[in-house]
Specification:
The chain is an alpha+beta fold. It has two domains: 56 residues; 59 residues, 2-Layer Sandwich (CRO Repressor). The chain is 47% helix and 13% strand. The protein has five helices and four strands. The two termini are 20 Å apart. The C terminus is likely disordered.
Length: 142
């Protein structure tokens, strides 16, 4: 669930609560509001699949925060993530040292993916889907 999905979910819940608790709102008005929100969600999902500009407005991009045991401080600042949060994600995966970590990625849903050197493979999961190249060809992950 991305931020837009969360906003629509909260709006749906609020609208439903208003329909149930406010006697001034008719069932028809409430149903129209719910249908409008659902249609907005479907239209946004449809457009985000077909148009990159819409997708960039409603969905976040995964961000590489740590590479080969080194924090990427510019990425941390842009995403407002502290080094302590990255360390916590690494510890949660049962790893005791940053030097054992190939990459930490902040995913679009706000979770951290921690990839150890042993699990890194070719690194193809870190590639930007919009730029399909192999890591050996000099492509930068994410």
């Amino acid at each position: 669930m991305n931020a837009f999905d969360l906003a629509v979910t909260v709006a749906l819940g609020s609208t439903l609560a208003t329909i149930l608790l406010n006697r001034q709102v008719t069932v028809a008005q409430g149903a129209a509001a719910l249908v409008s929100l659902v249609l907005l969600q479907f239209a946004t999902a449809w457009a985000s699949v077909r148009f990159r500009s819409v997708r960039s407005l409603v969905k976040a991009e995964p961000t590489l925060l740590l590479r080969d045991g080194r924090m990427l401080h510019d990425a941390l600042r842009r995403q407002r993530v502290t080094p302590d949060e990255v360390r916590q994600a690494v510890r949660t995966q049962g790893t005791g040292g940053l030097e054992l970590v190939y990459a930490v990625v902040l995913e679009t849903d706000g979770t951290f993916s921690v990839i150890s050197h042993a699990q890194s493979g070719s690194g193809s999961a870190l590639m930007d889907p919009g730029r399909p190249r192999t890591p050996s060809a000099g492509a930068d992950p994410l």
